[in-house]
Amino acid sequence: MTDATAITIEHEAGFGDYVALLKPRVMSLVVFTALVGLLVAPGALHPFVGFTAVLCIAVGAGASGALNMWWDADIDAVMKRTAGRPVPSGRVEAGEALAIGLALSGFSVVMLGLATNWFAAALLAFTIFFYAVVYTMWLKRWTPQNIVIGGASGAFPPMIGWAAVTGGVSVESILMFALIFMWTPPHFWALALFMKSDYKDAGVPMLTVTHGRRVTRTHILAYTVLLVPVAMWLAFTSIGGPMTLVAALVLNALFLKGAWDIWNRDESAAEADAYLTERKFFKLSLAYLFLHFGALLVDATWRAFA
Fold it and tell me: pLDDT tens digits for 47-103?
């Protein structure tokens, strides 16, 4: 076997590489929030239709991930956190990622429209467009507010799930959207705080790079404060209930405490201490969203069997 052949085999894409292309970790959050939006909506779908709807939303999210990796291959190669992704590592060709992203986008939208309704399909199409074009191609490299505006793409899945059942939107679905929308900036800015050099090296104008750590920590606290009333309001809607209220009280108290600790941190403290504080808040932010939507699901189950 020649050296050239060995190198080719070493970099040949495997099944896991194509799975990674779809960003499965991000997809898991999308699938869960979409499923909750579908299950708490008034009305019902046949279980098979509901499964198909959630699958289509998951495929649409995966398509967005593939398009994002295609476009961002150059900066992904520079960042330590993303250098091992399939496209920048050379295991999947950029053109192949583009083709997969476009094919899955069309498939997911058409299938969701046929399975449920075309309003839900249109929302899914807009979500893919918003993430791949508005956020990835435009906002991400242009403004430090990239994650604020671009975060809308990750907030649409529960609205799509709701629309799959109802064919429209409501106060409840808008509040689920708003919860994720307001949660996204603190979540990603916490990540940016302990991955600052990555974004700087890649030339991405994240808030930590353009305005510094102190301003970023202030923004985290401000958005966390604004997030609280949204979470509380959701608890008093038709899809809320005792568990949602308890979750809102406990989780937002913890989230506020974490944001305060980040904001109030002594600038002269050791870098390792800062890293731990920011990483702890980032991990808490993941649990925050899963548990909030989990509480909505518990309340919906309680009402169904009450």
Answer: 999 999 999 999 999 999 999 999 999 998 988 888 889 999 889 999 999 999 999
Region for residue 206 given its phi and psi (left: phi exceeds 0; alpha: psi -120 to 50; beta: otherwise): beta
Alpha carbon distances (Å) from 287 to 7, 14, 93, 98: 41, 31, 34, 32
* Alpha carbon distance 219, 214 (integer Å): 9
Neighbours of 120 (CB within 10 A): 27
Cβ partners under 8 Å of residue 20, min gap 6: 85, 86
Tell me which architecture the domain covering 1-167 has in CATH.
Orthogonal Bundle (1.10)
Structure tokens at 147: 């994650």
Q: Which 8-state DSSP code applies to residue 135?
A: I
Q: pLDDT tens-digit profile of 231-266?
A: 999 999 999 999 999 999 999 999 999 999 999 876
How many residues are listed for the chain in this entry?
306
